[in-house]
Amino acid sequence: MKTYIITITSLLLSLSQSLTFGDSPDGNWHQWRGPEATGVSRTADPPVQWSEDKNVKWKVDIDGKGTSTPIVWNDKVFLLSAIDTGVKDTSIPDPKDQPKTNFFNIKRPNTQHAFVVLCLDRESGKELWRRTAITKIPHDGAHNDNDFASASPTTDGKLLYSWFGSAGLYCYDLDGNKRWERDLGEAKVGSSLGEGCSPVLHDGKLVIVRDHAGQSSIEVLDAKTGDTLWQRERDEDNAWATPRVIRHSGKTQVITAASGAVRSYDLDSGEIIWQCSGLTGNVTPCPVIEGDYVICMSGYEGYAAMAIPLTETGDITGSEKILWKRDRGTPYIPSPLLYDGLLYYNQSNQSILTCVNAKSGERVFGPERIGQLSNIYASPVGAAGRVYITGRDGETLVLERSTEYTELATNHLDDRFDASPALAGNQLFLRGAKYLYCLEANQE
């Protein structure tokens, strides 16, 4: 009888957790840019106001460095970090003794780094497990504003995929058991700026794009085994834009944004469906889908935004079929937020905001300087009719999702924020340089 009662209790607890969190991407934040890859959650209702003393559910120290977005699945939060162990290889000169080899004077580390996958309890922030995927000395340095754990993990609720770039790709189940790993080789990022493109999971396939100063490529793996299904070389230089995968016009398209061209690959065959040039250098913002069009933009060495049809084939560069273009005020690092037909983006990495109609490209408001934010690296997110924009100095501006610029709140935390926020349920997760915050209303 006791066993029977325990079994019923366990079932009720499991059902309660399922109803609370929702066992689907819609109720979670399972990848970079959220359930729809637009920065929007349809189910979240995060707080509007917070501070170090208000609406902080929990705040935990995070070892090491990482600018990847944490992801959320049911009662677990996952994030990546690279921890400098301080253990030196004396055969490699100290960075201060290495000659200048690039514009930013970025040097190779000579200490071992632990590339770590962390799983936290969503309710308390307590660490449930950590796995050191590999310990090694990075083969190259990274810009001071980047790090060695800047790609966001992704999950389908069964397996977790953690991509450390040149340090490898690692697949775990959600209890931390390793399923497989792959070494996909070393990238040669120009000026040693570091890596950062996140993996994308779709229909049992994992998409990895690597655009750098060496031989760039796109590779699609079997998500269960890690085996390569196909790989194509790409004629591209540095780019960090995470691809967008969507079923459209009878094919599953993998859309990659880069300086040479925006390209659509057939997920099944690897063949190019269409391509379109027109972006500027160092493309970082990820594409977003609006109806039958994909919107791509860049903001380094000029500004560019294009709404490209998903229905075409071949090279459509300069075609009248491109719905609209803009050449002002587009972002360098942050990705745009597409929220029910309104497209929000900042200029370069500055706190200058523009909102346009995603269907027509017509300006709704801006560009205008917003709040007291400093430079912005994090991408904006949206939920419950609100837009959240986080600056590097710890300020987050909350706006009404509206055709008029309407501020609702400005909030401050004592950390530096380069990672983009994650939303799930009534919580907002902000990963800073030192801490991971879980924000929830009525947490005095």
UniProtKB/TrEMBL annotation:
Residues 1-21 form the signal peptide. Residues 26-46 are annotated as: Disordered. Transmembrane segments: none annotated. Keywords: Signal. Residues 116-364 form the Pyrrolo-quinoline quinone repeat domain. InterPro entries: PQQ_b-propeller_rpt, PQQ_rpt_dom, Quinoprotein_ADH-like_sf, WD40/YVTN_repeat-like_dom_sf. It holds the Pfam family PQQ_2. PANTHER family: CELL SURFACE PROTEIN, OUTER MEMBRANE PROTEIN ASSEMBLY FACTOR BAMB. This is Pyrrolo-quinoline quinone repeat domain-containing protein.
